[in-house]
From TrEMBL:
Domain DNA mismatch repair protein S5: 208-326
Name of the protein in question: DNA mismatch repair protein MutL
Record GO terms (molecular function): ATP binding; ATP hydrolysis activity; ATP-dependent DNA damage sensor activity; mismatched DNA binding
Organism (species): Actibacterium lipolyticum
A single Gene Ontology CC term: mismatch repair complex
Full-protein positions shown: 20 to 349 of 616
Keyword annotations of the record: DNA damage, DNA repair
Protein backbone atom coordinates (compact mmCIF):
# COMPACT_ATOMS: atom_id res chain seq x y z
CA UNK A 1 0.00 0.00 0.00
CA UNK A 2 1.43 3.34 -1.13
CA UNK A 3 1.13 5.18 2.20
CA UNK A 4 2.82 2.43 4.21
CA UNK A 5 5.54 2.19 1.59
CA UNK A 6 6.12 5.92 1.85
CA UNK A 7 6.45 5.84 5.64
CA UNK A 8 8.79 2.85 5.60
CA UNK A 9 10.68 4.46 2.72
CA UNK A 10 11.58 7.41 4.92
CA UNK A 11 13.53 5.07 7.19
CA UNK A 12 15.49 3.48 4.37
CA UNK A 13 15.92 6.48 2.09
CA UNK A 14 16.90 9.66 3.89
CA UNK A 15 18.76 11.27 1.04
CA UNK A 16 20.21 10.43 -2.40
CA UNK A 17 23.29 8.84 -0.83
CA UNK A 18 21.12 6.30 1.03
CA UNK A 19 19.47 5.33 -2.27
CA UNK A 20 22.91 4.93 -3.86
CA UNK A 21 24.04 2.76 -0.96
CA UNK A 22 21.06 0.41 -1.33
CA UNK A 23 21.46 0.15 -5.11
CA UNK A 24 25.22 -0.43 -5.06
CA UNK A 25 24.81 -3.04 -2.30
CA UNK A 26 22.22 -4.81 -4.46
CA UNK A 27 24.70 -4.81 -7.35
CA UNK A 28 27.38 -6.30 -5.07
CA UNK A 29 24.93 -8.91 -3.79
CA UNK A 30 24.28 -9.82 -7.44
CA UNK A 31 27.99 -10.60 -7.88
CA UNK A 32 28.78 -7.57 -10.02
CA UNK A 33 32.45 -7.05 -10.98
CA UNK A 34 31.85 -3.61 -12.45
CA UNK A 35 29.47 -1.00 -11.05
CA UNK A 36 28.80 2.35 -12.60
CA UNK A 37 26.84 5.07 -10.84
CA UNK A 38 25.58 8.11 -12.74
CA UNK A 39 24.10 10.99 -10.82
CA UNK A 40 22.51 14.29 -11.82
CA UNK A 41 21.89 17.28 -9.56
CA UNK A 42 23.29 15.62 -6.45
CA UNK A 43 21.08 12.60 -7.10
CA UNK A 44 17.89 14.62 -6.75
CA UNK A 45 16.83 14.27 -10.39
CA UNK A 46 18.68 11.10 -11.39
CA UNK A 47 20.53 8.16 -9.88
CA UNK A 48 21.41 5.34 -12.26
CA UNK A 49 23.30 2.25 -11.16
CA UNK A 50 24.50 -0.15 -13.85
CA UNK A 51 25.99 -3.52 -12.94
CA UNK A 52 27.14 -6.70 -14.63
CA UNK A 53 25.72 -9.03 -12.00
CA UNK A 54 23.43 -12.04 -12.37
CA UNK A 55 20.33 -9.97 -13.12
CA UNK A 56 16.66 -10.52 -12.33
CA UNK A 57 14.41 -12.80 -14.39
CA UNK A 58 11.48 -11.04 -16.08
CA UNK A 59 8.89 -12.89 -13.99
CA UNK A 60 10.69 -11.87 -10.78
CA UNK A 61 10.72 -8.13 -11.53
CA UNK A 62 7.33 -7.38 -9.88
CA UNK A 63 8.42 -9.45 -6.87
CA UNK A 64 11.64 -7.45 -6.50
CA UNK A 65 9.45 -4.37 -6.07
CA UNK A 66 7.18 -5.95 -3.46
CA UNK A 67 7.69 -5.15 0.20
CA UNK A 68 9.60 -7.78 2.17
CA UNK A 69 10.28 -9.84 -0.92
CA UNK A 70 13.92 -10.75 -0.86
CA UNK A 71 15.64 -13.50 -2.78
CA UNK A 72 18.50 -13.49 -0.28
CA UNK A 73 17.13 -15.34 2.76
CA UNK A 74 14.36 -17.87 3.10
CA UNK A 75 13.17 -16.65 6.49
CA UNK A 76 14.39 -19.69 8.39
CA UNK A 77 17.62 -18.08 9.51
CA UNK A 78 17.29 -14.35 9.79
CA UNK A 79 20.62 -14.04 11.54
CA UNK A 80 22.73 -15.94 9.08
CA UNK A 81 23.07 -13.05 6.70
CA UNK A 82 25.97 -12.95 4.29
CA UNK A 83 24.62 -10.50 1.75
CA UNK A 84 24.16 -6.75 2.21
CA UNK A 85 20.42 -6.88 1.67
CA UNK A 86 17.97 -9.06 3.48
CA UNK A 87 14.92 -6.96 4.27
CA UNK A 88 13.46 -6.62 0.80
CA UNK A 89 12.72 -2.99 1.55
CA UNK A 90 15.00 -0.93 -0.63
CA UNK A 91 13.38 -1.25 -4.03
CA UNK A 92 9.76 -0.85 -2.86
CA UNK A 93 10.86 2.14 -0.77
CA UNK A 94 12.61 3.74 -3.73
CA UNK A 95 9.54 3.05 -5.87
CA UNK A 96 7.46 4.89 -3.28
CA UNK A 97 9.61 8.02 -3.16
CA UNK A 98 10.69 8.42 -6.77
CA UNK A 99 10.18 7.19 -10.33
CA UNK A 100 11.96 3.87 -10.44
CA UNK A 101 12.79 1.82 -13.53
CA UNK A 102 14.58 -1.51 -13.38
CA UNK A 103 15.90 -3.09 -16.54
CA UNK A 104 17.57 -6.44 -16.15
CA UNK A 105 18.78 -9.48 -17.99
CA UNK A 106 18.91 -12.99 -16.60
CA UNK A 107 19.63 -15.72 -19.12
CA UNK A 108 18.61 -14.82 -22.67
CA UNK A 109 15.92 -12.28 -22.04
CA UNK A 110 15.90 -8.76 -20.74
CA UNK A 111 12.87 -6.96 -19.37
CA UNK A 112 11.96 -3.70 -17.72
CA UNK A 113 9.50 -2.55 -15.06
CA UNK A 114 8.64 0.91 -13.78
CA UNK A 115 7.04 2.08 -10.60
CA UNK A 116 6.11 5.63 -9.76
CA UNK A 117 4.54 6.82 -6.52
CA UNK A 118 4.06 3.17 -5.60
CA UNK A 119 2.08 2.35 -8.77
CA UNK A 120 3.63 -0.46 -10.79
CA UNK A 121 3.47 -0.66 -14.61
CA UNK A 122 3.48 -4.10 -16.30
CA UNK A 123 6.75 -5.82 -17.22
CA UNK A 124 7.86 -5.15 -20.80
CA UNK A 125 10.60 -6.72 -22.92
CA UNK A 126 13.78 -4.66 -23.18
CA UNK A 127 17.25 -4.72 -24.69
CA UNK A 128 20.22 -5.15 -22.36
CA UNK A 129 23.36 -7.21 -22.87
CA UNK A 130 24.05 -8.08 -19.24
CA UNK A 131 23.24 -7.34 -15.62
CA UNK A 132 20.92 -4.71 -14.26
CA UNK A 133 20.28 -1.01 -14.70
CA UNK A 134 18.29 0.69 -11.95
CA UNK A 135 17.24 4.24 -12.62
CA UNK A 136 15.70 6.44 -9.94
CA UNK A 137 14.37 9.79 -11.11
CA UNK A 138 12.93 12.69 -9.17
CA UNK A 139 13.60 11.39 -5.68
CA UNK A 140 11.06 12.70 -3.15
CA UNK A 141 8.90 14.32 -5.86
CA UNK A 142 5.88 12.85 -4.05
CA UNK A 143 7.06 14.13 -0.66
CA UNK A 144 8.13 17.76 -1.15
CA UNK A 145 8.61 18.13 2.61
CA UNK A 146 11.58 15.76 2.41
CA UNK A 147 13.00 17.53 -0.61
CA UNK A 148 13.37 20.66 1.49
CA UNK A 149 15.67 18.84 3.91
CA UNK A 150 18.17 17.91 1.24
CA UNK A 151 21.39 19.87 1.12
CA UNK A 152 23.02 21.49 -1.88
CA UNK A 153 23.71 19.36 -4.97
CA UNK A 154 27.37 19.61 -4.11
CA UNK A 155 26.88 18.34 -0.55
CA UNK A 156 24.62 15.50 -1.68
CA UNK A 157 27.17 14.53 -4.37
CA UNK A 158 29.87 14.49 -1.69
CA UNK A 159 27.75 12.14 0.45
CA UNK A 160 27.21 9.87 -2.56
CA UNK A 161 30.92 9.85 -3.25
CA UNK A 162 31.62 8.89 0.39
CA UNK A 163 29.18 5.98 0.21
CA UNK A 164 30.81 4.67 -2.96
CA UNK A 165 34.31 5.05 -1.56
CA UNK A 166 33.39 3.07 1.56
CA UNK A 167 31.93 0.24 -0.49
CA UNK A 168 34.93 0.40 -2.84
CA UNK A 169 37.24 -0.19 0.14
CA UNK A 170 35.25 -3.26 1.14
CA UNK A 171 35.35 -4.68 -2.41
CA UNK A 172 38.79 -4.07 -3.93
CA UNK A 173 38.27 -6.63 -6.69
CA UNK A 174 35.24 -4.78 -8.04
CA UNK A 175 35.52 -1.74 -10.36
CA UNK A 176 33.61 1.36 -9.39
CA UNK A 177 32.95 4.45 -11.42
CA UNK A 178 30.98 7.55 -10.44
CA UNK A 179 29.84 10.07 -13.03
CA UNK A 180 28.19 13.41 -12.62
CA UNK A 181 25.78 13.62 -15.56
CA UNK A 182 24.11 16.85 -14.47
CA UNK A 183 24.89 18.47 -17.82
CA UNK A 184 23.57 15.44 -19.75
CA UNK A 185 25.52 13.04 -21.99
CA UNK A 186 28.42 10.97 -20.69
CA UNK A 187 29.04 13.48 -17.94
CA UNK A 188 32.21 13.84 -15.90
CA UNK A 189 33.93 11.01 -14.03
CA UNK A 190 34.31 12.12 -10.40
CA UNK A 191 35.63 8.86 -8.94
CA UNK A 192 37.09 5.80 -10.52
CA UNK A 193 38.67 2.69 -9.04
CA UNK A 194 39.57 -0.15 -11.37
CA UNK A 195 39.53 -3.66 -9.95
CA UNK A 196 42.68 -4.45 -8.00
CA UNK A 197 44.82 -7.55 -8.41
CA UNK A 198 47.01 -9.73 -6.20
CA UNK A 199 46.13 -11.20 -2.83
CA UNK A 200 43.65 -9.55 -0.47
CA UNK A 201 46.31 -7.41 1.25
CA UNK A 202 47.86 -6.23 -2.02
CA UNK A 203 44.46 -5.48 -3.46
CA UNK A 204 43.36 -3.61 -0.36
CA UNK A 205 46.55 -1.54 -0.23
CA UNK A 206 46.06 -0.64 -3.89
CA UNK A 207 42.44 0.28 -3.33
CA UNK A 208 43.24 2.35 -0.24
CA UNK A 209 45.90 4.18 -2.17
CA UNK A 210 43.24 4.97 -4.77
CA UNK A 211 40.55 6.01 -2.28
CA UNK A 212 42.50 7.58 0.60
CA UNK A 213 45.66 8.54 -1.23
CA UNK A 214 49.18 7.14 -1.55
CA UNK A 215 50.26 8.80 1.69
CA UNK A 216 47.83 6.73 3.73
CA UNK A 217 48.84 3.52 1.95
CA UNK A 218 52.55 4.29 2.44
CA UNK A 219 52.08 4.89 6.17
CA UNK A 220 49.80 1.96 6.85
CA UNK A 221 50.66 -1.23 8.73
CA UNK A 222 48.93 -4.44 7.70
CA UNK A 223 46.73 -5.92 10.43
CA UNK A 224 45.86 -9.60 10.54
CA UNK A 225 44.73 -11.09 13.84
CA UNK A 226 42.18 -13.46 15.30
CA UNK A 227 40.52 -13.94 18.67
CA UNK A 228 37.69 -16.32 19.55
CA UNK A 229 36.34 -16.51 16.01
CA UNK A 230 36.65 -12.77 15.37
CA UNK A 231 39.02 -12.02 12.48
CA UNK A 232 40.54 -8.60 12.16
CA UNK A 233 42.22 -7.49 8.94
CA UNK A 234 43.04 -4.22 7.24
CA UNK A 235 45.54 -1.40 7.60
CA UNK A 236 46.25 0.97 10.46
CA UNK A 237 48.31 4.11 9.85
CA UNK A 238 51.37 5.13 11.84
CA UNK A 239 50.63 7.69 14.57
CA UNK A 240 52.45 10.31 12.47
CA UNK A 241 49.66 9.99 9.92
CA UNK A 242 46.97 10.94 12.45
CA UNK A 243 44.25 13.43 11.63
CA UNK A 244 42.58 16.38 13.30
CA UNK A 245 39.24 14.56 13.05
CA UNK A 246 37.96 11.03 12.63
CA UNK A 247 37.62 11.38 8.82
CA UNK A 248 40.06 8.59 8.05
CA UNK A 249 38.47 5.88 10.22
CA UNK A 250 36.70 3.18 8.27
CA UNK A 251 35.26 0.16 10.00
CA UNK A 252 33.49 -2.81 8.45
CA UNK A 253 31.72 -5.72 10.08
CA UNK A 254 31.21 -8.76 7.87
CA UNK A 255 31.93 -6.53 4.90
CA UNK A 256 29.41 -3.83 5.81
CA UNK A 257 30.49 -0.26 6.47
CA UNK A 258 29.56 0.61 10.06
CA UNK A 259 29.90 3.56 12.39
CA UNK A 260 30.03 2.00 15.77
CA UNK A 261 31.00 3.65 19.06
CA UNK A 262 32.48 0.49 20.51
CA UNK A 263 34.83 -0.03 17.56
CA UNK A 264 35.81 3.63 17.29
CA UNK A 265 36.54 3.62 21.03
CA UNK A 266 38.74 0.55 20.62
CA UNK A 267 40.62 2.21 17.79
CA UNK A 268 41.26 5.29 19.93
CA UNK A 269 42.29 3.06 22.82
CA UNK A 270 44.92 1.31 20.70
CA UNK A 271 46.64 4.64 19.95
CA UNK A 272 46.08 6.26 23.35
CA UNK A 273 49.79 6.15 24.27
CA UNK A 274 50.84 7.81 20.99
CA UNK A 275 48.25 10.45 20.23
CA UNK A 276 47.06 13.50 22.09
CA UNK A 277 43.30 13.95 22.58
CA UNK A 278 42.93 16.21 19.54
CA UNK A 279 44.58 13.75 17.13
CA UNK A 280 42.65 10.85 15.60
CA UNK A 281 44.14 7.64 14.26
CA UNK A 282 43.58 6.63 10.64
CA UNK A 283 42.67 3.03 9.91
CA UNK A 284 40.63 0.79 7.66
CA UNK A 285 39.62 -2.31 9.58
CA UNK A 286 37.47 -5.30 8.79
CA UNK A 287 36.04 -7.54 11.48
CA UNK A 288 34.62 -10.80 10.26
CA UNK A 289 32.80 -13.22 12.49
CA UNK A 290 29.99 -15.72 12.60
CA UNK A 291 26.87 -13.70 11.72
CA UNK A 292 25.09 -15.29 14.69
CA UNK A 293 27.47 -13.46 16.99
CA UNK A 294 26.71 -9.97 15.74
CA UNK A 295 23.44 -8.15 15.14
CA UNK A 296 23.58 -5.91 12.10
CA UNK A 297 19.84 -5.52 12.17
CA UNK A 298 19.75 -2.67 14.68
CA UNK A 299 18.66 0.00 12.20
CA UNK A 300 17.42 -0.12 8.59
CA UNK A 301 20.40 1.94 7.50
CA UNK A 302 22.42 -0.92 8.97
CA UNK A 303 25.32 1.18 10.11
CA UNK A 304 25.19 0.19 13.77
CA UNK A 305 26.00 -3.25 15.08
CA UNK A 306 25.64 -5.11 18.35
CA UNK A 307 28.25 -7.70 19.22
CA UNK A 308 27.37 -10.72 21.29
CA UNK A 309 30.86 -10.43 22.85
CA UNK A 310 31.78 -6.74 22.68
CA UNK A 311 34.80 -7.29 24.92
CA UNK A 312 36.32 -9.70 22.40
CA UNK A 313 35.94 -7.28 19.48
CA UNK A 314 37.38 -4.43 21.51
CA UNK A 315 40.25 -6.45 22.97
CA UNK A 316 41.17 -7.80 19.55
CA UNK A 317 41.42 -4.33 18.01
CA UNK A 318 43.42 -2.86 20.88
CA UNK A 319 45.90 -5.73 21.10
CA UNK A 320 46.37 -6.23 17.34
CA UNK A 321 46.99 -2.55 16.65
CA UNK A 322 49.28 -2.09 19.66
CA UNK A 323 51.24 -5.12 18.52
CA UNK A 324 51.59 -3.77 14.97
CA UNK A 325 52.65 -0.35 16.28
CA UNK A 326 55.20 -1.95 18.62
CA UNK A 327 56.64 -3.99 15.72
CA UNK A 328 56.97 -0.73 13.78
CA UNK A 329 59.03 0.72 16.64
CA UNK A 330 56.40 2.43 18.77
P1 LIG B 1 17.08 -6.95 -0.47
O1 LIG B 1 18.38 -6.44 -1.05
O2 LIG B 1 16.97 -6.67 0.98
O3 LIG B 1 16.79 -8.37 -0.85
P2 LIG B 1 15.86 -5.02 -2.24
O4 LIG B 1 14.54 -4.34 -2.18
O5 LIG B 1 17.08 -4.18 -2.19
O6 LIG B 1 15.87 -6.10 -1.09
O7 LIG B 1 15.90 -5.92 -3.54
C1 LIG B 1 14.85 -6.86 -3.76
C2 LIG B 1 15.33 -8.02 -4.60
O8 LIG B 1 15.57 -7.57 -5.93
C3 LIG B 1 16.65 -8.63 -4.16
O9 LIG B 1 16.46 -9.62 -3.16
C4 LIG B 1 17.18 -9.22 -5.46
O10 LIG B 1 16.61 -10.49 -5.68
C5 LIG B 1 16.65 -8.28 -6.53
N1 LIG B 1 17.65 -7.28 -6.97
C6 LIG B 1 17.69 -5.98 -6.64
N2 LIG B 1 18.72 -5.33 -7.24
C7 LIG B 1 19.34 -6.27 -7.99
C8 LIG B 1 20.48 -6.24 -8.87
N3 LIG B 1 21.18 -5.11 -9.10
N4 LIG B 1 20.83 -7.42 -9.49
C9 LIG B 1 20.14 -8.55 -9.27
N5 LIG B 1 19.06 -8.64 -8.46
C10 LIG B 1 18.66 -7.53 -7.83
MG1 LIG C 1 18.94 -4.49 -1.15
Amino acid sequence: DAAINRIAAGEVVERPASAVKELVENALDAGARRIEVAVADGGKTLIRVTDDGHGIAAQDLPLALSRHATSKIDGSDLLNIHSFGFRGEALPSLGAVGRLTITSRAGDEAATISVSGGAMAPVKPAALSKGTVVELRDLFYATPARLKFLRSDRAEMQAISDVIKRLAMAEPFVSFILRDVSGGGEGRVTFRADSETGDMFDALRGRLSRVLGAEFADNALPIDAEREGHHLTGYAALPTYSRGSSVAQYLFVNGRPVRDKLLIGALRGAYSDFLSRDRHPAAVLFIDLDPHRVDVNVHPAKSEVRFRDPGVARGLIVSALRHALAEAGH
